[in-house]
Design a protein that fits this description.
Elements lengths: L6 H8 L12 E6 L6 E9 L4 E10 L2 H14 L4 H5 L3 H7 L8 H21 L13
Antiparallel strand pairs: 1-2, 2-3
This protein binds FE2/S2 (inorganic) cluster (FES).
Length: 138
């Protein structure tokens, strides 16, 4: 059975934004889902003075929803402070994509987790407190 994807999901899957790697990133994070084996990696360039995300790139080995979620999530955190970027939930990513099929919601969790891991990587390297990660049931 074909899944019903929104136009935005299709757009971000076919034409993903911010794909790639950042050389000498300030923070790197990876998240994976052991059930499907999909993996997402996020690279951050952070402005040390005001702690905003100057650039973000991703590499995702995963399904269409995971790629669309990575693309949308990177668009949503670019230019934000690391605190505001931390508050981006997977539900907000899915909403910005005009929804994901219910059985694909877990794909958006990868984006939230990879961003959190990358921000914590930055925080750890800059003497900031590492924030406890919330575990999603899935
Ligand atoms: Fe694994 Fe979508 S099926 S992330």
């Amino acid at each position: 059975m074909a899944l019903d994807y929104s136009k935005k999901v299709m757009d971000h899957f076919i034409n993903p934004r911010n794909v790639g790697e950042i050389e000498n990133p300030d923070g790197v994070g990876e998240a994976g889902n052991p059930k499907c084996g999909d993996i997402m990696k996020i690279y951050l360039k952070v402005n040390d003075a005001d702690k905003t995300i100057e650039d973000v790139k991703f590499k995702t080995f995963g399904c269409a929803s995971a790629i669309a979620s990575s693309s949308m999530a990177t668009e949503l955190i670019k230019g934000k402070s690391i605190e505001d970027a931390w508050d981006l939930t997977n539900n907000a990513v899915a909403e910005a994509l005009d929804g994901l099929p219910p059985i694909k919601m877990h794909c958006s969790v990868l984006a939230e987790e990879a961003i959190h891991t990358a921000i914590n990587d930055y925080r750890a390297k800059h003497g900031l407190e590492v924030i406890p990660m919330e575990k999603h049931e899935d």
